[in-house]
Amino acid sequence: MSKYFFMLMIAFVAMSCSKKVEVTGNFAGGSPLERIEFIEASGVATLPLVNMGVDSKGNFAGSFEAPKNGMYIMTYAGKQAMVYLKGGQKVNISAQADTFPAKFTVAGDGKKNNEFIQEALTQIQTYAGQINVGELVTKEEAAFLKEVEKIRGELEKRIDAAAKKFSPDSDAVQWKKDEMNASILGLMNQYEMNHSQASGKAGFKVSKNFTDAEAKLKKDSERMLRNQPIYRNYLLGKLSQEFQTYADANNKSGQETSSVLFSQFLDTKKEMPQLEKDYLLAFVMSNSDINPSTTPENAEKISKVIQEKIKDAEIKKDLERIQFVLSGPKMGEAITSAKLVKEDGSAYKLVDNKAKPALVMFYASWNPYISEATLPVLGEVTKFYQSKLDFIYVNLDDTKDQFSKTSKAMLMGLPGTSAYAENGMNSQIAKDLGIYGFKLPSFIIIDKDGKVASKFFYNLGEPELVTVLDKVTGLKAPVAPEATLQNDLLAPPAPAEAPAANK
């Protein structure tokens, strides 16, 4: 009896500590070409945790390891919704495809928490619409602080009312109150930065009463750092003017990266906790310098900053991962030996290709416009280079059956080897090469020894790709027509909401 009880307890502990979230649901009227992804909202490197397909009836199902309990971004058809999830939960999410994210329902284990979050959000937005920020920043400091305390009290009352109505978990309520405190701190920062100009009082400085009020709201700083991106925004806002002055004085050439300058600036902040430095530096790096257009020289600089300045192991791991995803494997290293399977069922690996250099395409049948934009250009490329170059097409559909149904039609008339990566976007090859939905379709060149000979490309018309193809084949291509870039996420990034390094 005691033996079975012990085993039962072990099983219970294992389940209770699980980080896996199982998600099912339905998007009525959804398209099979659209994908569903979940992204941790509080992370420093916002890579999708899972990529799920929608069937012809709008159904979807999948699971992922949740890094922490908290808010997750759910994306569908380019639209985003926020969902509160916890490890070990089974949730069901349903919506009309055409009304998402304005309307959706969370059932199962996450029902109460998400009903609470939505109710609190509605009540807070209703009240916030009555607040005149422009008028607030003109008030005398004492009157402003009194008004801020009134606002905080009213918001907390509304959060508590929503909690009483839906009985959510205590950590969900705490998350919402932390978000509220971070938002109020942001309002206080606006006052500090703008009151002098708004009131006509040159040289205005806040008093100790003001900083004491800030300190009270920041008493759980570490928890807010880990869970609230808007709190990190607030902290960066507090530093922005000082950092700009530092950058102007220490970047005379105008060539240094924001990441390097900001890391040097943080070195002067001896009183700042290391975790705060780690999160703020990670925020600046991921929103400014870690992107597909970063030069190899600057990428190396950023890697050095990550290794030397970031102390938190999870933050460092996340930054290294997103940097790898955007830059790909290093030139000259052996390509992954992950197992693939050809249509006839035989095993295949990229490293098996030794006769010639090869252009490898990673794709899925759900890629938008692949037939119209990519395949015609690929046809011209294969026609010109096939005497000196092999072509390999790696399919990342959800199932081998889906691969079998679509690959023949899509690749008809193209020379080369077609293979399937078992488990699609969750396959070993996708993990090894950092392939996500936003990187499809993509291309990489391997030499005849099975080593990486190029970075990832997303446009067959890129001059650099043509240059590499000419180099590995000894041929000289004519000017190729440009293919449409398949995903805007891989275009040069918009200016980041981080402290600027240059005027």
Short description:
With 503 residues, this protein is of the alpha+beta class.
Number of domains: 4
Any idea of the CATH class of the largest domain?
Alpha Beta
Residue-averaged pLDDT: 91
Largest sheet entry: 6 strands, mixed
Provide the succession of SSEs. HEEEEEEEEHHHHHHHHHHHEEEHEHEHEH
From the helix content, strand content and strand pairing, which structural class follows? alpha+beta
Strand order of the largest sheet: 10-9-13-12-11-14
CATH superfamily of the largest domain: Glutaredoxin
The count of strands amounts to 14
Helix content: 40-55%
Strand content: 15-25%
Under CATH, the topology of the largest domain can be stated as: Glutaredoxin
Distance between the termini: 73 Å
Q: Ranges with pLDDT <50 over ≥5 residues?
A: 3-16, 483-489, 491-503
Shape: globular
Q: What is the CATH architecture descriptor of the largest domain?
A: 3-Layer(aba) Sandwich
Radius of gyration: 26 Å
